[in-house]
């Protein structure tokens, strides 16, 4: 697998999905009928999706302004996400193969202390979201080390959890937990850096529960 993806959201050596290796090496075709879920229409735009993102996190960390981050958090188009890679054209082709529509990012905390991030991305079909989630989880585990669990106890099905109790300080500034779930045509991720891996995992689990509850039914 390649390591051609730069930080998605905060340009510091910690957090977030796209410090991780690019998913392109694992890309695979996905085909499935669209399934918005029980007659509830999915968000039609990134702004509609943004209205569904949790406004706060259980730890009470202060929210970071989207515009103060580099690149900015908030709404994400396929070209924005592809732009985190060293080869944006190839990454865009991969994301389009997944059926990527749009996404939203939000962060709380600071770049030197506890930090929490939420990422929700919407796809044309559930299979695309599932392929994206699995590839990211496996690539993150390869990049950071730690323990990767598929369908861990206490999380819904179709989730992955990575705990990193003793991270490389060049990558993460503290113990971390990262989780990814498939929810219908959405990929939902939460990341946390905290004083201990137990605290990070507790934050991630609580944030995921709150975020999944705000999305349309599966």
CATH class: Alpha Beta
Please give the count of helices: 5
Helix content: 25-40%
In the sheet with the most strands, the strands line up as 1-2-3-7-6-5-4
User: Largest sheet, if any?
Assistant: 7 strands, antiparallel
The helix-and-strand class reads alpha+beta
The succession of helices and strands, N to C, reads HEHHEEHEEEEH
What is the gyration radius calculated from CA atoms? 16 Å
Strand content: 15-25%
N→C terminal distance: 31 Å
CATH second-level architecture? 3-Layer(aba) Sandwich
- Globular, elongated, flat, extended or rod-shaped: what is the shape? globular
What is the overall pLDDT average?
A: 84
Write down how many β-strands occur, each being a DSSP E stretch of 2 or more residues.
Answer: 7
Task: Please describe what this structure looks like.
The chain has 218 residues and is α+β, with helices and mostly antiparallel strands. The chain has a single domain (17-29, 45-214), classed as Protein Transport Mog1p, Chain A. The chain has five helices and seven strands. It has a seven-stranded antiparallel β-sheet with strand order 1-2-3-7-6-5-4. A hairpin with an 8-residue loop joins strand 4 (147-150) and strand 5. The longest helix is centred in the middle third of the chain and has 19 residues, at 126-144. The chain is globular, with a radius of gyration of 16 Å. Mean pLDDT is 84; it is low at 1-37.
């Amino acid at each position: 697998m390649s390591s051609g993806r730069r930080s998605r959201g905060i340009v510091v050596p910690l957090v977030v999905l796209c410090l991780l290796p690019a998913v392109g090496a694992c890309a695979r075709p996905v085909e499935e009928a669209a399934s918005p879920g029980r007659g509830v229409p999915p968000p039609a735009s990134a702004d509609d999706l943004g209205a569904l993102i949790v406004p706060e996190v259980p730890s009470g960390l202060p929210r970071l302004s989207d515009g103060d981050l580099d690149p900015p958090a908030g709404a994400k188009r396929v070209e924005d996400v592809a732009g985190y890679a060293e080869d944006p054209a190839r990454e865009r082709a991969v994301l389009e193969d997944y059926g990527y529509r749009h996404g939203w990012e939000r962060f709380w905390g600071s770049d030197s202390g506890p930090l929490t991030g939420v990422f929700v991305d919407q796809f044309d079909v559930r299979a695309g979201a599932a392929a994206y989630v699995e590839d990211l989880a496996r690539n993150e585990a390869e990049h950071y080390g730690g323990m990767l669990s598929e369908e861990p106890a206490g999380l819904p099905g179709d989730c992955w959890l990575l705990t990193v109790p003793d991270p490389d300080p060049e990558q993460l500034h503290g113990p971390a937990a990262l989780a990814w779930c498939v929810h219908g045509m959405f990929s939902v991720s939460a990341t946390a850096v905290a004083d201990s891996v137990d605290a990070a995992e507790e934050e991630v689990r609580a944030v995921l529960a709150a975020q999944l509850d705000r999305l349309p039914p599966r």
